[in-house]
Amino acid sequence: MVVHRLRQDEARRIAIHAQLLDAPRPTGLVEVVERLTLLQIDPTTAIAPSADLVLWSRLGSAYDPADLVQAVEIDRTLVETVAYIRSPRDLSAVIAEARGAETHPSTRAWLEQNEPFRRDILALLEQAGRLLSRDIPDTSVVSWPSSGWTNNRNVTKMLEAMALRGHVAISGRKGRQRYWDLPERVYSAELSALDLDAAVRLRNERRLAAIGIARSTGPVIPGESPYVGDVGEEAVVEGTPGTWRVHPAYVGRPFEGRTALLSPFDRLIHDRVRAEQLFGFEYILEMYKPRDKRRWGYFALPVLHGDRLVGKLDATADRKAGTLVVNAVHEDVPFTRAMTTAVRTEIEDLARWLGLEIAGV
Which residues of 254-274 are buried (b: 16+ CB within 10 A; e: fewer)? Predict the structure, then answer.
């Protein structure tokens, strides 16, 4: 059995290379998403939507958000699922895993009681074509059992449950609202049938190729799992407890780093425990904290320089004023002159990409 023994800098470089954050930059939008496997959709636009920030971090100012819309809604070379944009090649495994996953008893009961509601939606889409959720009547038998923000959002809850299981698909957007349709009208290829074990293994293989080095299992983290089961090869990283799984094709590669500003939802830092163990990097998204409790800012962007995460950029896009307001650059380590110059260059590139002038620090 192969066991790789890695220094922390080697492990960091594997993670950075896997996420296409080393040099040279990639050039193809679809190829980037193929490698990353997903872009998280988040409505926060303090600077730009997270999916766009992730692509800008890889592709630079050559990236145009209109190209992502084209790929998803016209070319169908990418697809939107619930909360993510993905490569079509992953759909069969994603859906098979959702169908085979254990459903919470209350959710399972609600879906079973509302089977006529589900059939009503399918019949309506078959007849009418794609529709916004607001145009789909609520024929639920039982309302969604929630006292929170999802209360009585029966149509949306049912559509999302159906989409996760491959019964409907998201075919496009009107602003922030989603169009829904039958999968055969949206997906460019027929979904293959996978059993749960095959789907989980394929998903783990794809995930390890995207993140490079990961734990086999661990505590549940909201969103896409950062764990990869037994795929790849075992590794020990100096200064960290336990063992890891590493993608063998990334071990021992030459590395050329660069500087990048990352979305708070970037997968390089999504697993906060991994970020601390490999990078010594502490990060909390503070948008939900009161202003006086924030250390780094409402939507602070992690700063990557070479093979280290070195700080956070506190900035906000003021589109009415036409400015990117830079409130602070928080240095986790003292910046050298070269680091300061490189980070400033990235901030200037971010402002140009947004079509804004820099204001502030």
Answer: ebebbbbbbbbbbbbbbbeeb
Give the pairing of strands 244-246 and 233-237.
antiparallel
Domain ranges in the chain with CATH number 3.40.630: 259-360
| Backbone φ, ψ for residue 233 (5° rounding) | -125, 155
CA atoms in the 13 A half-sphere facing the CB of 138: 10
Q: Is 174 helix (H, G, I), strand (E, B) or coil?
A: strand
**Sheet strand arrangement including 177-181:** 131-132, 177-181, 169-174
Structure letter (DSSP) for residue 332: S
> What's the distance, CA 215 to chain centroid?
18
Helix axes 91-100, 196-211, angle to 10 degrees: 130
Q: How far is CA 136 from the centre of its chain?
A: 29
Is residue 118 within 8 Å of residue 144, measured between CB atoms? no
Top-tier CATH class for 89-186: mainly alpha
Pair type for strands 323-331 and 357-360: parallel
Nearest CA among 101, 76, 98 for reference residue 89: 76
Alpha-carbon distance 224 to 266, whole Å? 12
Instruction: Give 148: exposed, middle or buried? Use CB within 10 Å, 0-12, 13-18, 19+.
Output: exposed
Max Cα separation, the chain?
65
For residue 243, which of 43, 2, 20 has the smallest C-alpha distance? 2
Q: Which of 357, 338, 313 is nearest to 57 (CA)?
A: 313
- Looking at the domain covering 259-360, what would its CATH class be? alpha beta
Query: Do residues 213 and 15 touch, judged by C-beta distance below 8 A?
Result: yes
pLDDT in tens, 7-55: 999 999 999 999 999 999 999 999 999 999 999 999 899 999 999 999 9
pLDDT in tens, 221-272: 777 889 999 999 999 999 999 999 999 999 999 999 999 999 999 999 999 9
Beta bridge pairs of residue 299: none
Whole-model pTM: value is 0.95
The answer to whether residue 151 scores a pLDDT higher than 60 is: no
